[in-house]
């Protein structure tokens, strides 16, 4: 049950992030989001690792 709630929360946060990115970022990020929606997460992760400094 708790995990389901966490996943729902994550999805909501993802949507918020997407909106934030859409309003502020470049076309490159936009194509990232499109790919994400097609569930090509491996590609996204690779792109994000290149774009973002390592926090995790």
From TrEMBL:
Comp. bias intervals (Basic and acidic residues): 7-22
Span list, region Disordered: 1-22
Protein name per Swiss-Prot or TrEMBL: Uncharacterized protein
Origin species: Reticulomyxa filosa
